[in-house]
Amino acid sequence: MTHKLIVVRDLARLRRQVAQYRKAGEAVALVPTMGALHDGHLSLVRAARRKAKRIIVSIFVNPTQFAPTEDFKSYPRTFEADIAALREVGADVVWNPPVEVMYPRDFVTRIVLEGPATAGLEDASRPHFFGGVTTIVCKLLLQCLPDVAIFGEKDYQQLKVVAQMAKDLNIPSRIVGAPTVREKDGLAMSSRNAYLSDQERALAPLLHQVLRDCAARIGAGERAAGVLAKGRKTIARGGFVLDYLELRNAETLAPATTDAGALRLLVAAKLGKTRLIDNIAVRRK
Questions:
Q1: Which CATH superfamily is domain 191-282 in?
Q2: Would you say the pTM of this structure is higher than 0.85?
Q3: Per-residue model confidence as pLDDT tens digits over 11-24
């Protein structure tokens, strides 16, 4: 039997649907996406299913998180395939608002960020990004009022920024991270992987290989500075233009030494025209 999936584009209808779930005593989970869904996104829906009876998946390509030089117009849009995949995986509602619903002509409010949003990682390369992300996520949380919202750990800094935003603004939704889903060769799944040429796709797993090697060496007690310097050279020799390869405190994203609590390695680099990001926990031996 095909799972019933409702596509909603009107805010009043969305709120009526959520109210119906609440009246029935059913917990609600939100999975925010920009569409072009892959197995990584679908794993978030499955994770949401373990935490709530009803699953809302938003599909909205958010213009405010793209700089004028970035790929908003060319960002992959595969709505019909997305709907088929979400029906198969058992989502209940797709919230697919038009731009004028999310950003009316008189919309003027923005969120100003500090803390993990100013860690010198994604924010250094894309200073506009987290303002756009938190604005749209805040709106989605207030529109859907979920008990829990699921975000992938591939976008690790984003996960930390959103969690801090929800905490600071007293939004009563629990923000939960779900593990990164990878291809067989280790490449983190991303909608932007579709931009890679065949040759670039063959080179792309090097980022994860470097992360694993660096994490193993740091976990075994090698000095982080030397390990990271070698890793950066390996990435550059592999044909990437490196934005950063950094060791950070896993909670605050502040620069870290190997004795500073839980640790996370984070990387971002361009391969041709495609910008790839990844991260990995450091396990001490």
A1: Pantoate-beta-alanine ligase, C-terminal domain (3.30.1300.10)
A2: yes
A3: 999 999 999 999 99
